[in-house]
Amino acid sequence: MAIAKEAAVAEWGALFGTVREQVARKKFAAVPLATAATCLILLFSIVQHLPGGEHFVTRIGVVKAALPLDVSLLRTPLSLYVPALDLPVWGALAQVFVVFGIAEIVLGRRLTLVVAYTCTLAGTLFARVGVAIGPDHAFGFPKWVAHVRDTGPSAAVVALAICIAFRCRAWFTAGLVVATMVGEAVVLPNLAGMEHVVAVMAAMLIAVSVEVFGDFWPRVLAGVGAAAVVATATASLEAAAADVRRRTPAGAAVP
């Protein structure tokens, strides 16, 4: 028991402490993104069960591989918040609030959104590729999959869990998530399972990129900004000097 406790503290101790401190200090203000995402899922769940609501939600937030690419891309941001019709909505609500909340605190809001949307989009595009190559390929799908409703936050949740684990060095958790998603895809070879694997791969690429180049681009942008300021100031001084020379009579001393 003591060994298990030590392992749990080593794996999640720092994460738990950081999250507890932020939540205790700011309450719901610590996770506005997670709160908004959870409310959106609840709203879409209610609306799509109202008369005419399913048609409305389908028109603005449901993605299928059979749709034109531009329509899918436009609907993808909202598709993340449209829960499946045949699954209990409380599961999606709990997943999003907990995982998005932790990610918002650990990764920051901007990176949380980047991971969630990038990995959801990766799964959406993979579905189109899988239908295009057909069931004769290992990663292909039959044509009828193109008409399957492809919505929900599960790919984003899985991806964020991977990035959180990388950031907190919770390697056992990361390995467990990867093994679970791969096992799901093997045991239940369907669209959702394969999209989860794609989301895991995309999340790992993002997590590694952030670890390697995390402070590189901010430094580059800061340098570009500083250079722009210097160039602007220099141009202003040169313009002022030229104006002074133009106004000064010939032969007069320039101050």
- In round numbers, the mean pLDDT is 85
Q: Please tell me how large the radius of gyration is.
A: 25 Å
Please report the total strand number as a whole number: 0
Question: Segments where pLDDT lies below 50 for 5+ residues?
Answer: none
What is the percentage of strand-forming residues?
under 5%
Topology pattern, helix = H, strand = E = HHHHHHHHHH
Spatial gap, N to C terminus: 83 Å
Largest sheet: none
Describe the overall structure.
This protein is mainly α and 255 residues long. Helix content is 75%, strand content 0%. The chain has ten helices and no strands. Helix 8 runs antiparallel to helix 9. The chain starts with a helix and ends in an 8-residue tail after the last helix. The relative contact order is 0.10.
Blueprint of the fold:
Elements: H1 2-26, H2 32-47, H3 53-61, H4 69-79, H5 89-106, H6 109-133, H7 154-167, H8 171-187, H9 191-213, H10 216-247
Keywords:
255 residues, 10 helices, mainly alpha
In short:
With 255 residues, the chain is mostly helical.
